[in-house]
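Supplementary notes for students who missed Thursday's class. We covered one full example, reproduced here. Read the sequence, then the structure, then the short commentary at the end.
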Amino acid sequence: MTRALIVIDVQNDFCPGGALAVTEGDLIVPGINELMADFDAVILTQDWHPAGHSSFASSHDRRAPMEMIEMPYGPQVLWPDHCIQGSHGALFHPDLTVDRADLIIRKGHNPAIDSYSAFFENDHQTPTGLEGYLRTRGIEDLTMVGLATDFCVNFSAVDAAKLGFRVTVREDLCRGIDLNGSMAAAHAGMAEAGVILA
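Structure (token representation):
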């Protein structure tokens, strides 16, 4: 079985000092680099928002970061402006071994809809193209690492499991935000979907 490592959003804005920093987000980078050699393919995902994205609190009058709103595709957390296309914050962490990647998937570039998952935008219908790439490469076994456990890693892992991939999340090489119990909800949802939490 061909195996792929999916490295989710290890970008400057999600690491300490970034606009949407995840606690200890930088500490997972050496372990991820070391793990890359164990896989047939390495895929990186990259949040890649246009300025003024609809998921930014700054795009909504009298709204603050971390508030929830209803969008046409469902509930949406309003985030601080982050991972804006071409910005320093959108770049991968400088210590991440980017050259080892077979593919980089950029997501969240549609200004009207957010995209947590590596497979679908938040409408759960619009694909990123990752599934097709994995199928044509004959890849069936996925291991996921990165940021953040309870959002982009969680959505990616659940979607992959629903698509029929065998999915493992290496929790030691992820870090989470834990917004209003989101970590517990993510763990429960991943387990229910059949994701292996290692």
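Commentary. The longest helix spans residues 149-162. The radius of gyration is 16 Å. If anything here is unclear, bring it to office hours.
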